[in-house]
Design brief:
By secondary structure, the protein is an alpha+beta fold. Helices cover 23% and strands 29% of the residues.
Length: 799
């Protein structure tokens, strides 16, 4: 073997070894990736979404074509409420399959939570177009008027509170002088159990003993000024990024990353009850009015037993804690179940109605608000509060001192994620839930609102913070109540002069004629009343020397906090006005360039004349008349390309003192094109002749006189009078007879003063049948009658 052959053989051997090693390496990598996917699927199946995410991300990085795995990854981000990454994955899925309704909706919601409202609206429209539920329409309408959410934002001040920690803090409840709230904070007790849904620490109940000691959050004074400014910005703006967060699906919560550079100091906060707090979730609660018992949310863990449903999910339950000496005796709520969750309790002011959130069967969507009534033998069966529930999530109810409800929802339209809504339960059949708006609501999740008795201050929870992505508790103060109520308002003015009228007595009556309110206009002529939505009312107004005002009004579609305007116009007594609106008959649009002459029929005096073609709307004061005087009017109106007309009215001048001619006369005008059949406009009845004859009978003359009248009112009009027969009889005989009848009819019209060159009579026989009843076709007498007709076609329109 020479040197060259030896070197060549050795190179071949080395290449072969390298290829074998590469093959082994690739197979090992593929095997490892499959193990990664298998473990991700296992985590996903066990609801360990936070653990599944990095495994799925690794897999789709190398297998971007795997749509099913991307769906699971998107679902994971949805479950932990990571809208930023959720948007990224849903974008890919929707571009691949825009017909998947559920993912189109999820993508739209992710975009909205990221403040991309224009793009979100596009996908809500796509969701609606593809047959999606009512959420599509709700959000489309809301996003097209998004400024409504910011309408009263200047009236509300919010503060991030010192009781917050680096973990979850949410859903406060009033207790004594302080607040009890949920938190996943570290109590300094060593390692705590975590929740595999999203690696969060389990929740416990904490007590801020005195609200007066709660301030805006303090932070590490050693932090740089730049970091302090950033801290303030992050906690006073919802225009900030975040990573992952929880979905507000009933029963699942999330924590944030620990803030190491800005240590929040929670003053005056202690564990509410160490015995009550277990190693699992203790969540939202409500205290009775006398604070002798409270109802709270906890995992399905009672008397040391941890229970799940048939799929292994541990649901939420409600528990009632009754005060016994200085301790609490805990019993289960009777409508708990291992099969569904029950949580987020709220009590009516008299403690006789318990409201809560549940995904029990019979609801509208994911989680609904339900209620039970306290009877002598305990709580009644749950009833769905249908007025607040949607296909989405309704959670975290709160009942204020008036017995009205605040709740969080992502099914009613808002700024993104969960928004807080209000509903007046006394108007539950006529009012839609009202979004309390920015700054309480933001593009992120906002929920768990509680309101003091003044209706203008309280607390709520939000996940809006920037680098601190958990839920936090905020305080709010408003110049007015969050729900401004429904009202009507307006101005009282004098008719024609538009002078503002002070001291007008105004009364509001309901549809049963019961007085709702009474007021007088102020120096600016203004008034207002509080009203109920979707109701009918009667508005009455009176003032000396003026005619009274009565108007039926409706509050359908009224917006809370935005008064519906109903102005009052009062005519002076003894002043009589004639007005008119001349419109196109088909379009109902006001006409311009109309010539008008209005005459008093009794005296022949012209009351109103347009010096030149003008607007079809006019009004004027009639001088020298009093109540009860005769009112006999003749109105002549004309316009180019329209049929001129003369109409009359006989009546009396009566209060109220405005006579609207369009209400007592037909002042609508008909547009005339060449070929228009005048007979159809003036409703000419059929013109009959004796058999085989062409003599004008009395009944025919009566109809032809209508055409004479039209032609006199329209001196530039020329008409062809066409006579038609049916197909019975010979063609020649029919043509001859119809021509004689047409010419006889034209001659009659000319004899009444119409120039002969303006009316032409022509017979067509059976040459222009209106249907298919031609020779040898069997037809009924009724069908033949359609062909025996006289037409009056416009062939010219002069000035």
């Amino acid at each position: 073997m020479n040197r060259f052959s030896f070197i060549y053989s050795r190179v071949k051997l080395e290449i072969s070894v390298l290829l074998i090693l590469l093959f082994i390496s690739l197979n090992a990598s593929l095997y490892a990736q499959k193990l990664t996917l298998k473990e991700a699927d296992r985590c996903y199946a066990h609801f360990h979404f936070a653990s599944a995410i990095p495994l799925y991300e690794s897999w789709v990085l190398h297998h971007p074509e795997d749509i099913e795995t991307k769906k699971k990854l998107a679902d994971c981000y949805l479950k932990i409420n990571d809208s930023k990454n959720g948007e990224r994955i849903y974008s890919e899925l929707v571009k691949n399959d825009a017909g998947d309704q559920e993912r189109v909706l999820n993508y739209a919601q992710m975009l909205e939570m990221n403040g991309k409202y224009t793009e979100a609206s596009k996908y809500f429209k796509l969701y609606k177009k593809d047959g999606g539920d009512a959420r599509g329409e709700r959000f489309i309408m809301a996003l097209s008027n998004i400024e409504n959410f910011y309408r009263d934002s200047a009236d509300v001040e919010i503060d991030y509170l010192s009781i917050n920690s680096s973990q979850e803090d949410f859903s406060p409840a009033f207790y004594k002088k302080g607040l009890v709230f949920c938190s996943a904070r570290n109590r300094g007790e060593g390692i705590r159990n975590t929740f595999n849904w999203n690696h969060s620490t389990y929740l416990d109940l904490y007590y801020a003993i005195d609200t007066t000691s709660i301030t805006e959050a303090e932070y590490n004074i050693n932090a740089s000024k730049k970091r302090r400014r950033q801290f303030y910005k992050d906690h006073h703006s919802d225009e900030t990024d975040r990573t992952s967060n929880d979905s507000r699906t009933l029963g699942y919560y999330y924590k944030s990353a620990y803030i190491d550079s800005l240590q929040l100091m929670a003053h005056g906060v202690v564990a509410f009850n160490k015995k009550l707090n277990t190693k699992y979730h203790e969540g939202p609660l409500v205290f009775s009015k006398d604070e002798e018992y409270f109802i709270f949310t906890r995992n399905n863990y009672y008397k040391g037993k941890y229970r799940t449903d048939s799929t292994g999910i541990n649901r939420l339950k409600l528990y009632i804690a009754n005060k016994v000496n200085e301790d609490w005796d805990i019993v289960e709520f009777p409508y708990n179940s291992d099969k569904y969750s029950v949580g987020h309790p709220a009590l009516s002011p008299d403690n006789k109605i318990l409201y809560f959130a549940s995904d029990m069967p019979g609801g509208k969507g994911g989680s609904d608000i339900w209620y039970c009534v306290l009877k002598d033998n305990g709580w009644s069966k749950p009833v769905n509060l249908t007025a607040v529930n949607t296909e989405g999530q309704e959670v975290f109810p709160f009942i204020d001192q008036q017995g009205d409800i605040y709740f969080a929802s992502n099914g009613w339209a808002g700024l993104g994620g969960l928004d807080i809504f209000y509903l007046r339960l006394s108007n539950i059949s006529s009012m839609l839930p009202y979004n309390v708006g920015y700054p309480i609501n933001s593009m992120k999740d906002d929920f768990g609102l509680i309101v003091r008795s003044n209706g203008r201050s309280g607390y709520f929870t939000s996940s809006r913070n920037g680098d601190k992505t958990s839920d936090d508790i905020f305080a709010f103060k408003s110049k007015q109540k969050l729900f401004r109520g429904f009202s009507i308002a307006g101005l009282a003015t004098e008719e024609r002069s538009n002078k503002l009228l002070e001291d007008v007595a105004i009364v509001l009556l309901d549809d049963n004629n019961n007085e709702i309110g009474r007021t007088t206009t102020d120096a600016n002529g203004a008034y207002n009343f509080e009203v109920e939505p979707n109701r009918a009312y009667l508005l009455k107004a009176e003032k000396n020397d003026y005619l009274s005002f009565n108007k039926e009004i409706s509050t359908a579609g009224i917006i809370p906090g935005k008064p519906s305007k109903f102005d009052i116009v009062l005519p002076r007594k003894g002043v009589y006005v004639i007005s008119c609106r001349i419109v196109d008959r088909k379009t109902e649009k006001l006409l311009d360039s109309v010539k008008v002459v209005l005459t008093d029929a009794a005296s022949g005096k012209r009351l109103y004349v347009t010096p030149e073609p003008a607007s079809g709307a006019f009004s004027f004061i009639v001088p020298d008349v009093k109540n009860g005087d005769p009112c006999n009017l003749i109105l002549r109106i004309s316009r180019k390309d329209y049929l001129s007309k003369v109409v009359s009215y006989q009546g009396f001048f009566e209060e109220p003192a405005e006579l609207k001619l369009q209400d007592v006369m037909d002042v609508r005008m008909d547009k005339i094109d060449l070929g228009t059949d005048i007979g159809k406009l003036v409703k000419i009845n059929p013109i009959y002749f004796d058999v085989g004859k062409a003599i004008i009978r009395a009944d025919a003359a009566k109809e032809l006189d209508k055409i004479v009248q039209v032609m006199m009112e329209n001196p530039g009009m020329k008409i062809e009078l066409g006579s038609h027969t049916d197909s019975r009889g010979s063609d020649a005989a029919n043509l001859n007879l119809s021509d004689k009848r047409a010419k006889a009819s034209a001659a009659y019209i000319a004899s009444k003063g119409i120039m002969e060159d303006r009316i032409v009579g022509k017979g067509y026989g059976e040459s222009r049948l209106a249907n298919n009843c031609s020779n040898d076709v069997k037809c009924s007498d009724k069908e033949h009658q359609l062909n025996r007709r006289t037409e009056f076609l416009v062939i010219a329109m002069g000035e």
